[in-house]
Specification:
Blueprint (H helix, E strand, L loop, with lengths): L2 H24 L7 H14 L10 H24 L14 H13 L6 H15 L2 H10 L1 E2 L1 H28 L4 H13 L1 H9 L7 E2 L3
Antiparallel strand pairs: 1-2
Helix pairs in contact: 1-3, 1-7, 2-3, 2-5, 4-5, 5-8, 7-8
């Protein structure tokens, strides 16, 4: 494992810890898209179907377990424990518009036409656009709590750090995972507008507000 992959994983862990902290301390999931969190559960469960028969390392296994468990826990917090604070009237993105194309793409473009490989490809494509309901919610409200923006920044940084990781792996091992690279670039690109506001406002001590 190289330093870029490690930093990316740590940033991903940080994003989840920040989100859980935000929900449990404020006892509210205001400003968080439940639909995005549902999609992440699907992403991790489908991607890590090989958890019990494909052992890579203890680090890899622990990370897989953490991502599945934490994503399910977040959905539990939003769906059950703090459900009254979840406002579906503003979380209105039509996720079927991204699930369908991602599934179709997974059936057409995969490394092997078997259930586990199709599920893996589907999870990669789905993760690349799973943030869209959250960004759509931000667009509707026009603002976000500072801690929510830190969660999104850590989440976006995780994927951005995978770009130098892919470059490093190409130069050292000659490995290029085309599906993961293309999907990752799409995912990183979706954060562009958010990062602009985050760096120009939030990191300067101002509140997060999207331009009108």
């Amino acid at each position: 494992m190289n330093i870029f992959r490690l930093l990316g994983d740590l940033s991903h862990l940080a994003s989840i810890i920040i989100l859980i902290h935000k929900i449990t301390t404020s006892r509210s999931c205001r400003g968080i898209s439940f639909k995005t969190q549902e999609l992440y559960v699907a992403v991790f469960v489908l991607r890590y179907l090989d958890l019990f028969w494909n052992h890579v390392s203890y680090y890899n296994t622990l990370m897989k377990l953490f991502f599945i468990a934490s994503s399910c826990y977040i959905v539990y917090l939003m769906r059950i424990k703090f459900r009254p604070t979840n406002d579906p009237s503003i979380d209105t993105f039509r996720i079927e518009f991204i699930i369908g194309p991602c599934l179709l793409l997974a059936l057409i473009i995969n490394y092997e036409f078997i259930p586990t490989e199709i599920a893996w490809a589907f999870s990669i494509y789905l993760e690349s656009v799973a943030i869209l309901p959250q960004l759509f919610l931000l667009q509707r409200t026009g603002e976000a709590e500072t801690i929510t923006t830190h969660y999104l920044a850590a989440l976006g940084l995780y994927r951005a750090l995978y770009i130098p990781n892919w470059i490093y792996r190409y130069w050292t091992d000659g490995v290029v995972d085309v599906i993961a690279v293309v999907a990752g670039l799409v995912q990183t690109g979706l954060f562009a507008d958010f990062f602009y506001v985050y760096f120009t406002r939030v990191l300067r001590g101002q509140s997060f507000e999207l331009p009108a």
